[in-house]
Records
---
Amino acid sequence: MKIIKLLLNAILIVSFLCGCSKNIDKKEDAPPKTEENKKEDNKVNRQENNPNDKNNINNNEAINKAQDEEKFLNNEIFNTRENPKDTNRKVRLNVIPQVQKVWYYCAPTCISMILSYRGIYVDQFTLAKEMGTYEPFGTHNKDAIRVLNKYMFGNEISDTGQASYHLEVVVGGVKSSQEISLFKQRLKKNIKDGYPIYLTMDVSKIYPGLKGEHNVVVIGYIETEAGSDIKYVYYLDPAPKVQDSVYGGLKIETVERLLNSMLTCEEPNYAW
C-alpha cells in the first residue's frame, strides 16, 4: 500500500509541475498585434498623406511658386490688336495689379507689383519698412529703387555695367524731344526684356481734382498706326481712388503728358 501511495503522490506532483510550466509559457509569449497597434499604423499613414500637414503645405506652396516662376519665365507679353480693324499694335506685360493698403504706400505697392511679375513675392508692408516709408511724404525714390535692386538683383547699389534699375531725372518734359525719345527707347527695351518701369507723377496733371506726388508702374504701350512711334503708354495705378469698375488700375496716357506731369514733382524720376 505504501508503494501505491508513493506512486500516486509522484504522479500528482508531476501533473502539477507540468500545469505550472504551461501557464508560465503563456505569459512569456509575445502578445499578438492588437487593434490599437493597427490604429497607430493607420495614423502614421494618414499623417504622411494629410494635405493639412505643415510640411505638405510648404511643399504645395513651393510647387505653386515654381509654377508662377515658370509662367514668368515664359515672359508673357500681350502683343495684339484688340480690334481686327485696329492697326495699332499693343504690347503689354501681364503684371498682376495691386491696390495700396495704406494711403502713402504707392511706392512699396509699385515695387511689389514689379517684383511679383519677376516671380519674387514681397508684401507692401515689408517693403515699406525696408524703404523707410513714412507719413506724410511716403517713400524717397532712391530708397524704393535700392530695395527693388536688392530683391531683384541681389545688390542695393547699382554699379556701371551691372544689371539693375537706374533712376532718371526728368527736367524738360514736353520741351525736351531728347528726353521723350530716350524714354520711348527705354520703354520698348524694358518691356521686351520683361522689366516694368517705375514712374513718379504729379496726379493733378493727370487726374483733375486730385493732387499730390504719386508712383505708378508702366507695363506697356500702344504703337501708332504706322508702327514707327509710341502713341500711348499702359500703366498700373495702385491708388484706391482711381480704380475702374472694369479695368481696375489699368490706365493709358501719352508719353508727353506723363513726362510733363513729373516736372512739378519734388522727385521727378522714373526708373528703368
---
Amino acid sequence: MGIIRLNAIKHYTGTEAELPASLPYGDTYFTTDTNKLFKYSQDGLSKDVTGSQLSASGYSRSTAFVGRPSDNAYQWRDSLGIEYTQTNVDGGDFKVFGFDPAIHLALDNPYWSTPTPSGVTGIGLFQGANLPEGVSSLFDYDYVFNDNYSPSGTTGFEGSTGRIKLNDCQYGDLLKVRFDFNVIPQIANTTVEPALWYSNRNDSDEITYTFPLTAQPIFYGSGTVGNTYLNRVEISAWITSNEDLNALTLPAIKSDNPVIIQPIGALVTIIR
C-alpha cells in the first residue's frame, strides 16, 4: 500500500484485499486491481464511493463569542448583552464580535455520542468533523489583533480577539457565514445592519483594504423596545486571491440607534 499524497487528508492505493479495516475520517483508498474508490467515515469504516463525486465542501460552528457572562455559564439572560452605544451610532461604527478560547472550551462541546467525537478542541463544535478537505480549522480562537497591529489604529478590529480563519481554503471557494444573534432594541424605529467586517491582507500580513459585507438591514418599529428578537443572517463572500485567503473577518453590526446585541453562534461554511 503506497501513500500517493500527504496532507491533512491522506490518500492511499493498493489492492482490494489490502483495504484497511479502519482509517481516520476523510481518508481515501483506491484499489489498483478493481478500480474502486473507498472513503472512510467518521466511525473509521470504509464506504465504496466509486462513481460518486467526493465533496470538498464543509463547515464548522462556534458559540464562543466574547462577552458571554461567565457568572451564568456563559449563557445570555434578560437584557444583558453587548451594548452598541450612542458613541458607536455617532461614529457610524461596525462593531465586531470576536471569539474567546475559554468560552470555546466551555460551550463548543459535542452533544452527541454517535459518531464518536474526536475530542480535539480548538477547532469548533464538531471537533474537526465536517471540515472541508485540507482545512484544519475555520476558527482561530487564539488570534489577538493588538498583538499584531497597533491598538490605536482605525481598522475596526482594534481590541478584538479570535477570527474566522480562511488560510487553508482554496481559490474559488465560496464563504458563507450564518450569524445568529439576538437584538434588544432600546429606541423605537431602529435599523440594524448585520455584516462581515473584512480586512484583506497581503502575504506580508499588511492590511490592504477594510470594508463591510452587509446583509439586508433589519428594522424594529414601535412596540419593539425591550423585547428580544432572534436573527439568523447569512452573509457570503468569494475567495479568489491571496489577500482573500489571508483576510481578517468577524461578524459585526451597525445600528442607527443604541441597541443591545447578544451574539449566539456562527456557522461557517465553505462551498467548493
